[in-house]
């Protein structure tokens, strides 16, 4: 099925199951431990051996010599995989660095060997006996020091590196009010609950991987390419995932090394990347330097806006596209955005929840707060004055498919009590605490991906859905079941959903905030095909048949789904593909964040007192799980604002705080009260579901709202994230 015209009224609009808050259908399995993660698949591979990764101790250079003798003689060792015995390997299309290094070393902690043994303890002990001599080379590890060496990156997933409209330089020079500031954001780690983990088993030349992976089809393709085997010989199984935030979009070392280890020792092998290895071995969100210039009239109406971004990655990598939102969020006839990519020999930089906008809005929305103060305009009102209902780079000929930013701003402000805010910084006290309020807009592009599904009805009238879509803790099982139940007129408990297996039809996968809308649209397409088959068997015109209460109806006639399916069941398969509506219409999700903080007068400790937000993201398929997604994202935004940073040792090229003890993330006590309001919206140009993504929207702008609240509380403006108390104390003393 192809979606190339706006959606009219369709079965999803009944709203019998879709749009209703439901508990997650996989919730009981999760809390009882009966939803096994990849490393726990003892049922699939009860005789699995264990692998331990030996990572590089240098960031750049070569292996001069590797001595495996002591490790090979260690108790329980079954084999050791290195570049010398792994066979010919290539690099996956979506990997920046080789997952098994040697003799050349591309980054610190790059996997150089896998020690396989009969027990986990034996593998780990033997790995400590591997001796590697290195020939180190000088590397580049400091973004600020290398900034002037940045180059224009090729067009990538975030679009062109640079965009222009009008005459920015001229308009900025003549603006009544000018703002020019530089903001920095650090490298960040995904810090998801479940580590990267896989079990691999070979059956002849066929490989099965039970793995933690967000994008099954991408993983299969890159594994086949890396090993040089046909894709049909690779099976990925990933029904339950303990979080990913983008770190599991692509094939990682655990999966490849488990496959190589299993092939070498002739039995299944399980590999988990140890938590202290993850930040340096896998991926991270790259640090940025962002320069923002805004020219406006005395009332705060923007005429000129520029956003330039510098970030770094390994050779062949890509930029952090932090100016994406600036291309679409606010008005201004004269515009400029630019991204520059610096070569750094740090571990791979790649997608982390809301790549681009999450860090771009940390800068842009603080700049807007500064502009509001310079113009003497309330920050909410400033954003309303600069709302635009079309792509400001393309002009009115490309309107937004749906844009309710103003509604979010007004409803969010009213619900939060924004009118009680004192606009003068440092004026509100509660005992020893300075109290302030801040706000920021939220923006995330709406993306859709082709997605397929197979759906059937069995002889008992039960509906079964199969798709390789993954559930990374987002509630995919539930919204897919809701879609099938709505389309076929059955109760939710009559639907069985099977996910995360490459034997199922290829879905959109989980990433980029496209997963929910795209995967349910794929189920919609398959369900429409099944409805046609069922109607035909009933002898009813497909476009007139009604589906409800487990029946297919036409007027006063009805037949049960079970009877029509028969003993053999009835199945249909289809995919949802997309036309050019995203080219004809700008598509995005919007919101408004509000935050109240307290800052200790003496210690500069920051405490978030409450947060609120209003969001417009098309039809909300399941308000309960959507709210969970948004408050989780808001929490990550607090982390980005106040504590999260991978600290780079610029002498040796690695992240020093590479474990959960020293990489700080928010906990429950840090987030006492969060309120989420969804603005009613249907986007008929997004998909037949009339939905849009919401999982990443909540992080976009949240950190800036915290930063702006700190300024309102203290009068101290910090532009170097995270906003730790040492920076506040230093500014207080200045």
From TrEMBL:
It comes from the Bacteria. Residues 32-138 form the Aldehyde oxidase/xanthine dehydrogenase a/b hammerhead domain. This is Xanthine dehydrogenase family protein molybdopterin-binding subunit. SUPFAM superfamilies: CO dehydrogenase molybdoprotein N-domain-like, Molybdenum cofactor-binding domain. NCBIfam families: peri_hyde_PaoC. InterPro entries: Ald_Oxase/Xan_DH_a/b, Ald_Oxase/Xan_DH_a/b_sf, Ald_Oxase/xanthine_DH-like, AldOxase/xan_DH_MoCoBD1, AldOxase/xan_DH_MoCoBD2, AldOxase/xan_DH_Mopterin-bd_sf, PaoC-like. Pfam families: Ald_Xan_dh_C, MoCoBD_1, MoCoBD_2. PANTHER family: ALDEHYDE OXIDOREDUCTASE MOLYBDENUM-BINDING SUBUNIT PAOC, XANTHINE DEHYDROGENASE.
């Amino acid at each position: 099925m192809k979606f190339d015209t706006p959606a009219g009224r369709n079965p999803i609009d009944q709203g019998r199951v879709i749009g209703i808050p439901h508990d997650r259908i996989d919730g009981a399995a999760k809390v009882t431990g009966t939803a096994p993660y990849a490393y726990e698949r003892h049922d699939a591979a009860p005789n699995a051996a264990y692998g331990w990764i030996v990572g590089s101790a240098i960031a750049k250079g070569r292996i001069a010599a590797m001595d495996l003798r002591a490790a090979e003689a260690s108790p329980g060792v079954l084999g050791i995989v290195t570049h010398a015995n792994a066979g010919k390997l290539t690099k996956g299309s979506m990997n920046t660095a080789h997952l098994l290094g040697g003799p050349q070393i591309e980054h610190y902690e790059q996997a150089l060997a896998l020690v396989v043994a009969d027990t986990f303890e034996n593998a780990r002990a033997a790995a400590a006996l591997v001796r590697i001599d290195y020939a180190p080379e000088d590397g580049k590890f400091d973004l600020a020091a290398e900034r002037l060496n940045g180059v224009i990156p090729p067009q990538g997933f975030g679009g062109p590196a640079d965009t222009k409209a009008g005459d920015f330089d001229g308009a900025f020079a003549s603006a009544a009010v000018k703002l020019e500031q530089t903001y920095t954001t650090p490298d960040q780690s995904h810090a998801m609950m479940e580590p990267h983990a896989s079990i691999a088993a070979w059956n002849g030349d066929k490989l099965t991987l039970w793995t933690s992976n967000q994008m099954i089809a991408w993983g299969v393709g890159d594994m086949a390419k890396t090993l040089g085997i046909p894709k049909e010989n690779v099976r990925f199984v990933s029904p339950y995932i303990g979080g990913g935030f983008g770190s599991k979009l692509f094939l990682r070392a655990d999966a490849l090394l488990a496959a190589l280890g299993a092939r070498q020792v002739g039995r299944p092998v399980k590999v988990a990347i140890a938590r202290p290895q993850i930040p340096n071995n896998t991926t991270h969100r790259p640090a940025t330097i962002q320069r923002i210039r805004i020219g406006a009239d005395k009332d705060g109406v923007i005429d000129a806006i520029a956003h330039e971004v510098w970030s770094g990655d390994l050779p062949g990598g890509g930029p952090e596209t932090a100016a994406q939102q600036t291309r679409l969020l606010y008005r201004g006839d004269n515009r400029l955005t630019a991204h520059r990519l610096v070569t750094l020999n740090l571990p791979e930089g790649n997608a982390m929840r809301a790549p681009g906008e999450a860090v771009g809005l940390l800068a842009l929305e603080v700049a807007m707060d500064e502009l509001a103060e310079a113009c003497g305009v309330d920050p909410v009102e400033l954003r309303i004055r600069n709302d635009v209902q079309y792509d400001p780079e393309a002009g009115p000929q490309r309107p937004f498919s749906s844009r309710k930013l103003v509604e979010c701003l007004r409803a969010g402000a009213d619900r939060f009590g924004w009118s009680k805010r004192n606009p003068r910084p440092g004026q509100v006290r509660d005992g020893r605490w300075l109290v302030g309020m801040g706000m920021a807009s939220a923006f995330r592009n709406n993306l859709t991906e082709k997605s397929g599904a197979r759906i059937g009805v069995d002889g008992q009238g039960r509906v079964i859905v199969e798709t390789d879509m993954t559930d990374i803790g987002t509630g995919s099982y539930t919204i897919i079941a809701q879609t099938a139940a709505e389309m076929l007129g059955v109760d939710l408990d009559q639907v069985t959903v099977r996910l995360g297996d490459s034997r199922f039809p290829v879905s959109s996968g989980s990433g980029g905030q496209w997963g929910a809308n795209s995967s349910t649209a794929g189920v919609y397409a398959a369900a429409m095909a099944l409805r046609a088959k069922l109607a035909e068997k009933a002898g009813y015109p497909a476009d007139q048949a009604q589906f409800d209460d487990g029946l297919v109806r036409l007027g006063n006639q009805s037949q049960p789904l079970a009877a029509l399916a028969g003993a053999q069941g009835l199945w249909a398969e289809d995919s949802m593909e997309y036309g050019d509506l995203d080219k004809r219409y700008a598509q995005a999700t919007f919101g408004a964040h509000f935050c109240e903080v307290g800052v200790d007068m003496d210690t500069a400790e920051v405490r978030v007192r409450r947060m609120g937000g209003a969001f417009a993201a098309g039809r909300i398929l399941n308000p309960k799980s959507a709210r969970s997604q948004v408050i989780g994202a808001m929490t990550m935004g607090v982390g980005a604002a106040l504590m999260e940073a991978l600290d780079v040792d610029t002498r040796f090229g690695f992240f020093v705080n590479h474990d959960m003890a020293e990489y700080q993330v928010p906990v429950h006590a840090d987030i006492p009260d969060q309120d989420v309001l969804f603005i009613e919206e249907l986007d008929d140009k997004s998909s037949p579901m009339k939905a849009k993504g919401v999982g990443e929207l909540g992080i976009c702008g949240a950190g800036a709202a915290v930063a702006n609240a700190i300024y309102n509380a203290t009068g101290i403006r910090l532009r170097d994230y995270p906003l730790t108390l040492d920076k506040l104390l230093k500014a207080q003393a200045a």
